[in-house]
Design a protein that fits this description.
Elements: H1 12-20, E1 32-33, H2 45-53, H3 68-82, E2 95-98, H4 101-112, E3 120-125, H5 129-137, E4 141-146, H6 162-167, E5 168-174, H7 186-199, E6 202-206, H8 222-228, E7 237-242, H9 243-246, E8 255-259, H10 261-274, H11 280-291, H12 294-314, E9 328-332, H13 338-349, E10 351-352, E11 354-355, E12 372-376, H14 381-397
Parallel strand pairs: 1-10, 3-4, 3-5, 5-6, 6-7
Antiparallel strand pairs: 2-8, 7-8, 9-12, 11-12
Helix pairs in contact: 2-11, 3-11, 4-5, 4-10, 12-14
Enzyme class: transferase
Protein name: Succinyldiaminopimelate transaminase
GO molecular function, one term: succinyldiaminopimelate transaminase activity
């Protein structure tokens, strides 16, 4: 077996299941799951219908590059959303469909990272654990860039020494961030590009939460910044997007990677061997999803309504900050023991939240997830409101 498999950490939800094992929550309270980032809103009816209309596609093997109509729909959305020039965005060279960003993030790392001593992959901390696992199985060392209140929940690029940047092969960014909801501005992304040029590494911007924003202005994207500075070849820059959060279809497993053609081309070859081509029915169902923005606006409004309902209930008893994007509350818990908080909240209120230490790693500067929990507002407004009342009752009971 690959010895690097032994370096993988248990997945957060495995650890959460162990934490809850043997606990019997109150029978009279329904379970409210606020731990996993799985959208619960209804998928658009037209996407479901398109899937049904193309089930005959199950009789054919899909190709790794995806059908041109899908790549064209993705290109239309990228140009519409991120102000890219249609004449410069080549659907043959710059875009590749993925079976979800999770698969893409992992596979791309295997294709990009060169197996050599000292190879490093940088990532925010806390983070989406696929970044770390992909780095480890590619033979690279993960370097964790803490995101804390002190650095405004942005990885501190200036705190990394030149020697570490020189051995960096891949930098993962996530905006809006999981779990903090922090949006990376244009100046920040521009600085990352400058570092990539200076030290010769690839940037992968995970933008799967880009359409769930609570601000008036949509978050900028990495390719958008490339366009604004005249970097029309998107050199060293890739973005990943998904329909999972945007269109509430996590089971469709539909996303894409876009950017530097010199990386997309060999990655396309890699995927031909990897065998992860998106089934044709899913490709056809994805086209109307990328072409429609109205359902995305409704989706955003639904998440905003949840924050509007929950925050006034929790703010008097728990330090809550409305995030710029995403559907998480990243909160510091009283007493500082996030595992105990999550365990006792489940035991007393039948609510599942995710301990912050399950999303982060220890560093010389400390563990930025310690003492925090991630609360995922994916349930209905009524359920989220009920959960907020229960969390407040729990906190008031244990106050002091």
């Amino acid at each position: 077996m690959n010895p690097d498999l032994d370096k993988l950490h248990p997945y957060p939800f495995e650890r959460l299941a162990s934490l809850k094992a043997g606990i019997t929550p109150p029978d009279h309270l329904s379970h409210i799951a606020l731990s996993i980032g799985e959208p619960k809103h209804e998928p658009p009816a037209f996407v479901v219908q398109a899937l049904k209309d193309h089930l005959d596609g199950l009789a054919a093997y899909p190709m790794a590059p995806g059908i041109p109509a899908l790549r064209a729909a993705i290109a239309r959305w990228l140009c519409r959303r991120f102000n890219l020039a249609a004449e410069r965005l080549d659907i043959e060279r710059h875009i590749l469909p993925l079976t979800g960003t999770r698969e893409g993030l992992f596979a791309l790392t295997q294709a990009v990272v060169e197996d050599k001593p000292g190879a490093a992959v940088m990532m925010p901390n806390p983070f989406y654990q696929i970044y770390e696992g992909a780095a480890l199985l590619a033979g690279a060392e993960p370097i964790y860039l803490n995101t804390t209140a002190e650095n405004d929940y942005l990885p501190d690029l200036d705190a990394v020494g030149a020697e570490d940047w020189d051995r960096c092969q891949l930098l993962f960014l996530c905006s809006p961030g999981n779990p903090t909801g922090r949006v990376m501005g244009e100046d920040y992304l521009r600085k990352a590009i400058e570092l990539a040029d200076r030290h010769d590494f690839v940037i992968v911007s995970d933008e799967c939460y880009s359409e769930i924003y609570l601000t008036k202005t949509p978050p900028p994207g990495l390719l958008e910044v490339c366009e604004s500075i005249g970097r029309h070849d998107f050199r060293r820059c890739l973005v990943m997007h998904s329909l999972s959060k945007r269109s509430n279809v996590p089971g469709l497993r539909s996303g894409f990677v876009a950017g530097d053609a010199d990386i997309i081309k060999p990655f396309r070859l890699y995927r031909t061997y990897h065998g992860c081509a998106m089934p044709l029915p899913a490709q056809h169902a994805s086209i109307p999803a990328w072409d429609d923005d109205a359902h995305v606006e409704d989706n955003r409004a639904a998440y905003r309504a949840k924050f509007d309902a929950v925050l006034p209930i929790l703010e008097p008893v728990l330090p809550c900050v409305r995030p710029e994007g995403g559907f998480y509350l990243w909160v510091k818990v009283p007493g500082g023991d996030d595992e105990a908080f999550a365990r006792d909240l489940f035991a007393e209120q039948h609510i599942t939240a995710l301990p912050g230490t399950y999303l982060s790693r220890d560093t010389a500067q400390g563990n930025p997830g310690k003492g925090h929990v991630r609360i995922s507002l994916v349930a209905t407004v009524d359920e989220c409101t009920e959960a907020a009342h229960r969390i407040r009752a729990f906190l008031e009971k244990h106050k002091g």
